[in-house]
Prior knowledge:
122 residues; mainly alpha; 0% strand
Amino acid sequence: xxxxxxxxxxxxxxxxxxxxxxxxxxxxxxxxxxxxxxxxxxxxxxxxxxxxxxxxxxxxxxxxxxxxxxxxxxxxxxxxxxxxxxxxxxxxxxxxxxxxxxxxxxxxxxxxxxxxxxxxxx
Length: 122
């Protein structure tokens, strides 16, 4: 949960690097919260099947969109890539390349985006 909150504290920080652990914990907890809110929306009759979201889940999605984008850019920085690679997510099959980048290990040592977060943590 601390990793999730750390990402929210860095709400719109696009500079620096984010470790795999920081990125994937945020995404996992974000997914769990979204599913829970969709279930609540469905029970309240607020779920729209066309959009795939309801009132509560839609508001939550809008609130975490910017931190999610920021942590994705920082994760790309951690692998030594520009944040512009995030645009691959727009193209359906090329989005798989972006997913692969999220799984890659950190670039060792310091790179042009800052120090390695794994080395800073421990």
